[in-house]
């Protein structure tokens, strides 16, 4: 697909710009749908109906929200560090957007077919921390600073279990290439790594419990990485007012919002690629290829997005030290032990 | 214990420190005590086994036109009886000893009485205004209080 | 920019300390409370509360009224989530001063209303406590049930929040016909909803982690600080004015005084204060059930005095509001205008303990502690 775009535009700079913009075709409609989904899901959980007036069952409300955000006055506090204040939301968004480069949406489309795909992913998603710290510092607001510092501590500590989980996957698959990773699991539901991967039955059964633990670790860590309840302490509405984005309004706030939702899908997609066969159809070659690949990938991704939303509206928030406890004393040891055991299984069988 | 019994008990112990016993006031009779021995009396009321007034319900300032008063409503959780004390001081020298060290709940109540009536509670640990702004002038609940026309240079309108 | 080097208590800050203001505009201070925090990183070293942002001169206003009955709408606005209880306290104090006997039906209806109001108020306390801890959903579950109570009030007196319903010597309206059947339906539904609430929030693992062993208030400290209501009972002190100093007709009903037991942590922690409120709702339902079974007939306005002019004297009367002991000290000089009214509001006294129990906790714990005290700033600042 990328080659096709490049051939359409001999002037290669323009071609590359268009390639860069392709994920936006997904992110923007996805954000609208997820905003709507989140509102409706939370409303129905809470015995409400959410918006019902703009369009059929309020389907036009996300557009109205965006319109409102576009019109809002863009306020920069007098005491803020203006340059960093303006830069921060873009850094956050870039950090998130960059991860979409290596997400294999279909068997024929991936932004950049890097051999170091997983490694790149782990590295680039840390860029978000820089943006968040920047926004907290530049706001010149003590609560924002608290939020930013908490966020930095949180994202950095939860990268460790995530990295360990992904490392275990790499050990099993023998590749860091996201496209190959999906390819390996494309033989239907039994080939997915969550069910032990495409191996002989004994090895599969040995790997299965370990993979399940790793999946839970990855699910928890990914929830923490997107700063959502129960791990939303950087934003902690009732403690820190709104954390690092308290002082933002208008489009800058919208960009934070967009980055949050995009990140939500990115981490869900990583879980999908690592454990649930990426774009692979659960029925092997049946219903696969072409648009079906995109369908399965988005469907699986949205499933995990929904799980995030569901948990967000159910659970209370952890405290900052309990959060660190979960990361360093629960998730990291579990992931580490699983990784060592996987190494042993891979060598022995 | 009834009001009479508690009063008798206090009279025996403190004698002249009990300035006046207002038995006829209905429905809640009270006694007026000397401000100088208020602390001792309070301590006695709290610690004496048969009295055990462990709970300070309410502490109110009062402007009696010419003198200021502080009313203490105390009760006992153990014996389920209650009692009313009052101290009276002249308006131009309104100093009352603080009973914060005996009942901690007096802390904010005394700050409020200071705020509203200008009663000075000597040896109170933190006697600042509590409900009114810190730079407010005058004590609003005094009967001769005039509503200021200006606050910090801003005209006060109604 | 000027650097802050001293707290308003006058303590000089160390270099690693920072003063940060929580409020007056802050989501978890439940109104316009300002807490001046001295923090060392996330750890709270000192808390200095500043109140008075919602001071509406209740006491000064009362002294200008020409009639005692006119004070009641002001009393409504003191504790605006439990107006019925405020009205009852004031009515009891005024009736004590006037020495009037009221018909039994009035007392029964007052009890029903106050217990419904207690449930409504506790629902707000529980719901907003959930929000303080970060759980959004229980809040709306609580409001759903509270809505039905407010509908009942609306049916009775036309107002949903500030009723002016309990008058001195009587009530403004008798119960409407559909009231009792609707109330019975509500009781049946609400019992189920309490269980749902317990499953969703009270025994949630994260919720317990956040509230157990936090803000521990020992019983003797609570008594010395004058705490009352769920705050005192959470510390294990079995003290409820409805039981220990029965006013109105509470001595005719059978109910239990719920106390904290330290089930999941230390006795007197935030969770204990929280669970006392949940248990009290169940007891309130019991009282209401008994009251509607034995509700006597009568005229609700037969004892309302035409002209309220008490003899010179003074009275202090107290009643158990959802937050604790709400007392009114009324002094009369024989005219129709009260000479002095002082409200002893439970939230004001309960709040004064906050700097005592929150020293050394974390900022997130401070939200848990403020929430568990359950303050209503209208009552704190009057």
In brief:
The complex is a heterotrimer of chains A (349), B (158) and C (382). Chain A is an all-alpha fold and 349 residues long.
Q: What report would you give on this structure?
A:
- The complex is a heterotrimer of chains A (349), B (158) and C (382).
- Chain A is an all-alpha fold and 349 residues long.
- Chain A has one domain.
- Chain A has 13 helices and no strands.
- Chain A has helices spanning 2-8, 12-45, 61-71, 82-99, 117-125, 127-138, 142-173, 178-184, 201-225, 237-240, 250-275, 291-312, 320-348.
- Chain B has one domain: 2-Layer Sandwich (Beta Polymerase, domain 2).
- Chain B has a five-stranded mixed β-sheet with strand order 1-2-5-4-3. In chain B, strands 6-7 form a two-stranded parallel ribbon. A two-stranded antiparallel sheet of chain B has the order 8-9.
- The relative contact order of chain B is 0.13.
- Chain C has helices at 58-64, 71-76, 83-98, 104-133, 137-157, 179-202, 205-211, 219-224, 230-234, 241-244, 270-293, 346-351, 354-357, 363-373, 377-381; strands at residues 18-22, 34-40, 43-50, 166-167, 170-171, 313-321, 324-332, 338-344.
- Chain C has a three-stranded antiparallel β-sheet. In chain C, strands 6-7-8 form a three-stranded antiparallel β-sheet.
- Chain C is globular.
- Chain C contains 15 helices and eight strands.
- The model of chain C has no long low-confidence stretch (mean pLDDT 87).
- Chain C has a single domain (58-345), classed as Cytochrome-c3 Hydrogenase, chain B, CATH 1.10.645.
- With 382 residues, chain C is an alpha+beta fold.
- Chain C is 46% helix and 13% strand.
Features of the shown structure:
heterotrimer, B: 158 residues, alpha/beta, Beta Polymerase, domain 2, two-stranded parallel ribbon, 3 helices, 22% helix, 29% strand, C: 382 residues, alpha+beta, Cytochrome-c3 Hydrogenase, chain B, three-stranded antiparallel beta sheet, 8 strands, 46% helix, globular
Number of domains of chain C: 1
Please describe the biggest sheet of chain A, giving its number of strands, its sense, and whether it closes into a barrel: none
Going by helix content, strand content and strand pairing, the class of chain A is mainly alpha
Order of secondary-structure elements of chain C:
EEEHHHHHEEHHHHHHEEEHHHH
How does the overall form of chain C come out from the CA principal axes? globular
Terminal CA distance of chain C: 36 Å
Radius of gyration of chain C: 21 Å
- CATH class of chain C equals Mainly Alpha
Q: Low-confidence stretches of chain C at least 5 residues in length (pLDDT < 50)? A: none
CATH architecture label name of chain C: Orthogonal Bundle
Structural class of chain C: alpha+beta
Put simply, the count of helices of chain C is 15
Order of helices and strands of chain A: HHHHHHHHHHHHH
- Binned, the helix content of chain A reads 55-70%
Average pLDDT value of chain A? 84
* Proportion of residues in helical segments of chain C: 40-55%
Largest β-sheet summary of chain C: 3 strands, antiparallel
How much is the radius of gyration of chain A in Å? 21 Å
Oligomer: heterotrimer
